[in-house]
Amino acid sequence: MDDLNRGGSTAPLATYTEAVDWIKSLIPFGIRPGLDRIQMLMDKLGNPHRRLKFIHVAGTNGKGSTCAFLTSALIQSGYSVGTFTSPYITKFTNRFQYNNTDISEETLVELVNQLRPLVQEISETEFGSPTMFEVTTAVAILFFAGVSCPDVVVWETGLGGRLDVTNIVTPIVSVITNVGHDHMDILGDTLEKIAMEKAGIIKTGVPVVSCVTQPEVVAVLKEKAAACRSTLYLAGEDFSYEANGIREDVQTFHFKGPFRSLELGIVMKGEHQISNAAAAMMVLEVLRQYMAFMLEDEDMLEGLRHAFWAGRLEEVSKSPRIVLDGAHNPEGAESLAKSLPQLYQYGKLNLLMGMLSNKHHESYFKHILPIVDTLILTEPDFQNKMDAENLQVIAESLREKYAKENLAIIVEHNWGKALQLLKSITAEDDLAVVSGTLYLISDVRGTLLQQPDTEKGW
């Protein structure tokens, strides 16, 4: 890698494109779990993260949606909120938001120029260059601590928890939405191992909220919380939620917590979103009860009701009907397969999907194949993509046991052509779904919504 990409050039980066390109140049350093490099960066900057109040959100699925619920409810309640999430759907600046507004391109360039010489210094040590995600996390901290200064930061983990870069912070509340089979090449090959990584965000004395259900995962969280002397608010034990149905596109549910009960409604689709909203509600109750947050019921409920998160059961076209959902692991596929018949009436279901190569594809197909009439397999325009033919081999091997009769499986490597094919075969009373990696969802969404500035959602 040349000196410019490694940060060797002393000339400041002049444009937004140059700044993002420089961050992208760090992608080849890969995912390197550990906090050494980010801690060195923070030390050089005077540890600005220590000035902020974080709500740290981990989990296999539902992290982004839970962040959206928290952000919306807190803003509606009069608090200023920083939100850090990944990956993004439309543009790199989506990762860093203040009151639901992206960081400006000019501010991003300034912060990247501040970080670049420090990244170069660290790259010359035995620790090697900070990674793309480490630098991105540092940008977020600088933006929140030195530019926007929000009352609270909703802070999503990147991968896992224990060794995730975001774990540099000590939050006021931790959230673990759920634990499932994802990133098993890095986090471990059993739910217990994955749970131990997620539980790594639990800090001494910091309350933690979770909706995990598997007994072995519950046991891991309880043990970790006890060791940290942290109060664990667990769904099914310390709080509960029960769906009441859908009225005028609003899912309603009953929330019962340790302090009181409430009736809530959300416009985000899918039964699984009730779990995410309930977790957010429990966090808000902890903030209200123990941390002197002024949260009026009317504001909280209004904020939760209107929360939105792109690419999650999002209907982006009426004719033909096209729904985007970033389900990319077995648990996500199970939620998608359960939600579609509940939410939509349709003749045939046509599904376009593309995946990265490090996912649990066989279990994904076991949930999806029983409900699909036509399956179009494509490839995201991104590194580490899964070959469409390899997906086809897996799907065909499961056809006899799991697939609907007369399932059609089509391979089209070019996602753009695959999208056109999906549109052409979907009749007025059919439903088209695009699912799989968010890198594919990002491109498809930008195309369908005619967003010319859509970038790659890494």
UniProtKB/TrEMBL annotation:
Q: What class of enzyme is it?
A: ligase
Assembly and oligomerization: Monomer.
Task: Please name the pathway.
Answer: Cofactor biosynthesis; tetrahydrofolate biosynthesis; 7,8-dihydrofolate from 2-amino-4-hydroxy-6-hydroxymethyl-7,8-dihydropteridine diphosphate and 4-aminobenzoate: step 2/2; Cofactor biosynthesis; tetrahydrofolylpolyglutamate biosynthesis
Q: What InterPro entries has UniProt attached to this entry?
A: Folylpolyglutamate_synth, Mur-like_cat_sf, Mur_ligase_C, Mur_ligase_C_dom_sf, Mur_ligase_cen
* E.C. code: 6.3.2.12, 6.3.2.17
The domain of life is Bacteria
Output this protein's name: Dihydrofolate synthase/folylpolyglutamate synthase
Instruction: Pinpoint the Mur ligase central domain residues.
Output: 153-283
Q: Which GO terms describe its biological process?
A: folic acid biosynthetic process
**Gene3D superfamilies per the UniProt record, alphabetical:** Mur ligase, C-terminal domain, Mur-like, catalytic domain
Q: NCBIfam families this protein is in? A: folC (TIGR01499)
The protein's matches in Pfam families, at most eight in alphabetical order, are given as: Mur_ligase_C, Mur_ligase_M
Q: Does the keyword DNA damage apply?
A: no
GO CC annotations on file: cytoplasm
Report the catalytic activity.
7,8-dihydropteroate + L-glutamate + ATP = 7,8-dihydrofolate + ADP + phosphate + H(+); (6S)-5,6,7,8-tetrahydrofolyl-(gamma-L-Glu)(n) + L-glutamate + ATP = (6S)-5,6,7,8-tetrahydrofolyl-(gamma-L-Glu)(n+1) + ADP + phosphate + H(+)
Span of the secretion signal? none
